[in-house]
Each structure stands twice: as structure tokens, then as C-alpha cells.
Design goal:
214 residues, mainly alpha, 10 helices
Length: 214
């Protein structure tokens, strides 16, 4: 492992100490490992992939009053301190800026493969058993209802509606998580997502059976 990656890991661990458990160092580590796994099947710049994966949630806007510039500023300053080439820095910042589900309508066309790889990895960590755990953790963090039979999922929300949404945790599956499988960019990402998607369907089916005391 090169020094820049090692230093980035150390930096991210320190920066995210005490973060909400769905967006902490362990989330970053899983996305980093998934990114490397997917990258093996694609022709891409591994340094850009690894740095982007490690820094993609360094300042998640939802924990910083919606500020979407903070992560870019922190990442740029850190990478410059590590003497990373400017071309690499710009590519990493592009990934961080365009990775988010809520920003998908604003992302440019013909995305670079490095962004596609890290985006797939980040989305894969939002589904499956880990996705279920993270979703309920975040719902608890916000004190959202787990489920309410009279509150319907809001589909096709705008970015602003999505950011302000405080719907139920179960609705989040329908508003985002079940959509991710079909948004995968890479063949490897699609393959991993398929299994995790099926697990979520099984979970939701079981949840409803237990909720309704079948």
C-alpha cells in the first residue's frame, strides 16, 4: 500500500471518529474494499478510485447543514498536503461531487469509470443486510418512525424534497434502496447488487408479516 493511501486512511479514521454509525470509518472501509473489488474488473485509475472511496463521505452534507462544498474543501486541502498530482486531485473531487443519489439528476453525462466504480460500491453498501442495518440506524438517529401504514412512500422526489424528507424508515426502502439495483454502472456492481436486492425484498416481506401479526 502506498504512503498516500495509508495517510488517507489515518486521516479519515481521525476525521470520522464518533460519526453516525452508518457513515463512519467502517462504512468507508467497506466502500473502499468494494471499490477495489469492482475496479479489478474495469480499466481504471486505481489511485483515483481508492482516494475517492476513502474521501467520499469525509463531510457528508446531511451532517453539516446541507453544505455540499465542505467535503471538497477538506479533501482538496488534504490531498495537496500529500503532494498528490493536481490532475488526480481534480478527478477525486469530481467523484466526491457527483457520487450522491440525490445529485444524480445534476451529474454530467458520460461519467468517468472511476466515478462509476466508487458510486457502485457506495450504493452496494446501502443495500442488503448492511443496508437494512444502516437504514434503521439512521432512522433511529433521526428518531423517525419505523413504519406507519398511513404514510405512503414519496416516489420521484426532487433533490430538495429528498433532503428534507423525514418519512418512515420502511418508506426509505421504496424511495431509494430498492431503486439502486437498476442504477448500477458496472457488470460487477450489478452482480453484487442483485443478491443484496433480493435479501431486502425478503426482509420487507417478513417485516410486513410480523407487523400485521400474520
Amino acid at each position: 500500500m502506498n504512503n498516500v493511501i495509508e495517510n488517507t486512511i489515518k486521516f479519515v479514521k481521525e476525521k470520522l471518529e464518533g460519526a453516525e454509525a452508518g457513515h463512519d470509518w467502517f462504512h468507508i472501509e467497506r466502500v473502499w474494499k468494494l471499490s477495489k473489488k469492482i475496479a479489478q474488473t474495469e480499466d481504471c485509475n486505481l489511485e483515483v478510485v481508492e482516494l475517492s472511496a476513502l474521501l467520499h463521505d469525509i463531510a457528508d452534507p446531511k451532517f453539516h447543514n446541507g453544505d455540499e462544498t465542505l467535503a471538497l474543501k477538506i479533501s482538496k486541502e488534504f490531498l495537496e498536503s500529500q503532494n498528490v498530482a493536481d490532475e488526480i486531485i481534480q478527478q477525486v473531487l469530481f467523484v466526491i461531487q457527483n457520487i450522491s443519489f440525490k445529485n444524480r439528476s445534476e451529474a454530467p453525462q458520460n461519467l468517468p469509470i472511476e466515478l462509476k466504480v466508487v458510486q457502485d460500491a457506495d450504493r452496494i453498501d446501502a443495500i442488503g443486510a448492511i443496508g437494512v442495518a444502516r437504514t434503521f440506524n439512521f432512522g433511529g438517529f433521526k428518531n423517525n418512525l419505523m413504519y406507519h401504514p398511513d404514510i405512503q412512500p414519496k416516489l420521484n422526489m426532487s433533490k430538495e424534497e429528498y433532503k428534507k424528507s423525514d418519512g418512515t424508515t420502511i418508506n426509505h426502502f421504496y424511495e431509494k434502496l430498492l431503486l439502486l439495483k437498476d442504477l448500477m454502472n458496472t457488470n460487477e456492481g450489478k452482480k453484487i447488487a442483485e443478491e443484496r436486492h433480493q435479501f431486502m425484498l425478503t426482509f420487507l416481506d417478513q417485516f410486513m408479516k410480523e407487523w400485521n401479526v400474520d
